[in-house]
Amino acid sequence: MTDINTLALHAGYDPTSGGGLFPPLHMAVAYPYDSAERGRLMCLGEDSGFTYSRVGNPTNDILEKRLAVMEGGEAGLATASGLAAVFMAVLQFIEKTKSEVVCSGRVYGNTKNQLRLTWPTLGVTPRFVDSPHDLSAWEAAINENTAVVYVESPSNPDVFVADVKALADLAHQHNLPLIIDSTLATPVFLRPLSLGADVVIHSATKYLSGHSAALGGVIVGQRDWVEGIRNGHYHFVGPTMSAFNAWLTLMGIETVGLRMARAVSTAQKVAEFLAAHPNVQSVNYPGLPTHPQHSLAIAQMGCGGTSLLSFVVEGGTKGAWAVLESLKVIIQATHLGSNQTVAVHPATTTHVRQPPEMRQAAGVLDGMIRCSVGLEDPGDLIADLDQALATIE
């Protein structure tokens, strides 16, 4: 099995094992073991059985195996949220105080907040690369204290596309690992490990589940490294995805290939409409020839690679709010990757905790609206945006 749609239905689970056609939900907290010696080995992480759901659960195990196969990795680890995945993945590479994380300046607002506000309290310093398209800027940020290189591609909300292979090669030249947040592309359009990345993380809350009913994250990488997290910091801190959320995420993953193809196709049409609208100053979408990384996106993902786009309207915050509050089909919500199309004003929501100069450096302008295109009819979405944009004075 190699096709992503087949893997999304079959990887990591044998339905003839007695569990049923769809993977079962295991809600138990603890799992009895058949001998004291086996219990000892499981608690040391030397036996793959289950003892306690904070560390491993049969439903979570299916999700972890499925996503690992879909990403072309050896092992996966499910976490309580996407930000928990970010934290645990970075933490595993921090071996000393005064370590530094070199990170793209164009990442999700709360990823940046975690790095700039939480990590310094633990003695770790972030170095943000505000021109992540420029490999020399990454090179300049790396020093003897760098522990890990981190990028999000495509990025939220300005949809920057990283050259994953080039960045992985640079990181490896310095004997550093590359972590990539591939939430917006999913393994449907991007498999970063095949391009040289060492670790892939996702907010499974988004496209992987699709239905907006389950919070979760996932980490995929080499088996020894992933199991090192499970039997170390993950075991002691407890950022575990609930079995119910893992079960709901498995339900969403079955259709992720179909959903992503439809959503990306519609996003392309919406982006083209917005690019021609007189009240829109600019559109950020990799599927447009005007996007700075358009050629890279086509070569690396085959298309725009995500259904997320952002656009800047006339009138700054006032204009953006007028558009958002006039939408009738598109829902105003701080979310993305849902089956429903949602839109939000990043400057006053996802990036509101950042000072204006930091938002500007990350390309988050006051007139920017972020739109995650869902599964509705393209014509209905375009008509809704058209009438809302007409409200800008």
Can you tell me about this structure?
- This protein has 2 domains: 4-253, Aspartate Aminotransferase, domain 2 (3-Layer(aba) Sandwich); 257-389, Alpha-Beta Complex (Aspartate Aminotransferase, domain 1), CATH 3.90.1150.10.
- The strands form 2 sheets. The chain has a 7-stranded mixed sheet, sandwiched between helices. Strands 8-9-12-11-10 form a 5-stranded mixed sheet.
- The radius of gyration is 21 Å and the shape is globular.
- The mean pLDDT is 96.
- The protein has 393 residues and is of the alpha/beta class.
- Helix 7 links the parallel strand 4 (146-152) and strand 5.
- Helix 1 packs antiparallel against helix 3 (58-71), helix 3 runs parallel beside helix 11 (243-253) and helix 12 (256-275) packs parallel to helix 16.
- It starts with a helix and ends with a helix.
- It is built from 16 helices and 12 strands.
Helices, strands, pairings?
Elements: H1 4-10, H2 36-43, H3 58-71, E1 75-79, H4 82-93, E2 100-104, H5 109-118, E3 125-129, H6 135-141, E4 146-152, H7 164-173, E5 178-181, H8 186-189, E6 199-203, E7 217-221, H9 223-230, H10 233-237, H11 243-253, H12 256-275, E8 280-284, H13 294-301, E9 308-313, H14 316-324, E10 331-332, E11 342-344, H15 356-361, E12 368-372, H16 378-389
Parallel strand pairs: 2-3, 2-4, 4-5, 5-6, 10-11
Antiparallel strand pairs: 1-7, 6-7, 8-9, 9-12, 11-12
Helix pairs in contact: 1-3, 3-11, 12-16
